[in-house]
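Entry 12.
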Amino acid sequence: IVRIGFSVYQVLAVLACMDSRQPIKRMLGLDPGEAHLLRNAGAIVTEDVLRSLLISHHIKGTREFMVVAHTECGMQDLAESGFRERLERQSGRKAEEPARFHAFHDLDEHVRRQLERVRAHPWLVCESGAALVGYERVITNSSTGSNAFFRLKR
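Predicted 3D structure (tokens):
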């Protein structure tokens, strides 16, 4: 975080799972306004997350992106077809959206794939043509609260 006078210039955007066991601000030592926080089930880089990252990067000037995932995630090993069938049975109706729930099996591979989706987007570059400065992935153990940080540079 770069502080300019009394304002904060945000350089970090964080995508995390919506699970409330992850106290993201406290875990990363962030004060209010120090990062853009995006949350959804499973910390998935969806079209909406990409849209938010583009705004965050090009309009607000963020330069780094972090994915925070955790063990015991409800999206890990979710049987998508069975879940969809259950929802249809409970509601008595079919739905077109969401087309996928983005379940995953291997947590580490899942986080790598999310980071790659960000890296691969052609608009997530700065004016000089350089890509976002850094990517980081954090795996949180939901039982112990311990974190494993991995820093990846382009």
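Annotation: The first helix runs from residue 24 to 28. The chain has a mean pLDDT of 82.
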